[in-house]
Amino acid sequence: MRPTWHDAFDAQMELWRWLRTEMGRDWVIDRAKQVFELDWQDEDLVQYVERGEPLRDILLRANPFFVAAEMCEVIEAAALALAEQEPLLQSDLLATHGFVFFERPVLFPNPPATRDADFTGFSWGMDNVNEPRAIFPTTYQEWPEEWGQVRPEFGPMPRMIPTPLPVWAFEEEPPLMSDGISPFFIVVATGLRLMKQFVPAKHHVMVRPDRINRRQAKKVEFPERDITVVRLRREKQPHAEPSGKTIDYSHRFLRSGHWRNQWYPSLHRHRMKWINPTIVGPPDKPLRSGKQRVFTWTR
Hey, is 294 helix, strand or coil? Predict the structure, then answer.
């Protein structure tokens, strides 16, 4: 069976090819107008998108990231637990342009819709690499049932449907919608924060697109890039507190995952840091809650 990480490169190239067509360009214009006019009313940004350049250019230049299914669970849990937003920093980005592909959709409540939004990935690109001031983010979803049938003039749709979002400026929090922070921005913010928080480990993997990918890319003049595979590593159950002092527990218990406002000396400021769920106590003691898993992010 073909390794699933190649799907990231496939999807990125498929979207880029689609956006080069009149159908794809029209779709992005309609979707951008729908989003911006409802909540942000930024005519300058709409005009920028109408030129049909930003998203297509981002996909052409983006480094692809494949996020394994169990890692998606961490994004989902952290996004749901995110109570406060923080400014975007240039140092939050792993690359000037990036395309993130989720192996399985990340679900997040999207009121007033009757069901959760299922995000299949997101992308970003700096507005100016030499003097960057902001990023142009985009989220991707499967085609929602509530949208009905695809209009014939748009033809076959790619597997990942783009929703362009307004510019997110550095040193500013995500743009507000009429009813608060958009779930689209929450998923982007959480993904960027966690992918940056956990530095590459010795087993992080970068893979080259396979021969089929490379042949297709060469045919359409799409640049070949290595894919960064973001996987989950199981963490050994801790038997002691970080100080090294052994504590005599009568049972095991779950310490829930949560965000902590952490001071970063290198940044001279506080930033939100995700603390993984942890099962505390010796392995031979009974667990006071349901079976849980402990996660560690790696790249």
Answer: coil
